[in-house]
Amino acid sequence: QQQVKQSPQSLIVQKGGISIINCAYENTAFDYFPWYQQFPGKGPALLIAIRPDVSEKKEGRFTISFNKSAKQFSLHIMDSQPGDSATYFCAASSNQAGTALIFGKGTTLSVSS
Amino acid sequence: DVKVTQSSRYLVKRTGEKVFLECVQDMDHENMFWYRQDPGLGLRLIYFSYDVKMKEKGDIPEGYSVSREKKERFSLILESASTNQTSMYLCASSYSGSPFFGPGTRLTVL
Q: Which of A23, A73, B98, B99 is placed for a possible disulfide with A90 were both Cys, Cβ 3.0 to 4.6 Å?
C-alpha cells in the first residue's frame, strides 16, 4: 500500500511564483517528515524537514506546512527560480528503531523564466 | 564532508548474471539503505541495515539480497538479473534522521 501520497506529479510555475507540493500520509506513527530535492544525475538531497510538534518550518524561500489532524504536509517554494527546477520528494518515518523513510512518488517542478 | 559513494554510475548486464552493487560511506553511520528509483514510482526501499551483519527487508526485496560485513560498506546483490530490474539504484546512510544519498547506479539489464 502507498503510505505517502504526493501531488501533483508535475508542476510548471513562472519565475517569481509560488510552487506548492502536497503530501498526505496514513500511518499515525509517522513523526518525521523531510523533503528531498533531486537534480538530474544526482542523488536526492535533504532540503528541509519537520516534526509534528510544530505546524510550520521555514528555511529561506522554502516552507513546510504541517496539519497533523488532516495527516497532510506541504512544501511551499516562494519566489520560485529556474534553479529550483528539480524533482521533489516528500517522505515520512517513525521514531521506532529499525524503520526507514517511506517516500512519495515525486513531483517534477519546472520554473520557467 | 559527508560522502556516500557507489561503485559504478552506469552498469550494463545480461539477463541471468549475478550483479553486485557496492556502496561505501565515510561517516561512521549505523544505518544504510538501498532504494530503487523508477519514473512515476518514486523511491522504493529494497533493504536496509541498522548494524553490521543485520538486515531488514523493505517494500520490494524480491530478487535481491544484501550483505553488510563492515560498517562502512553495504552491498546489493541481484542473484539472477532480470530485465525488470533495470532501474536507478540509490544507496544511502544515516545515523539518525534523514539519510544521505549517493549519486546512484543506473543499471540496465539486457
A: A23
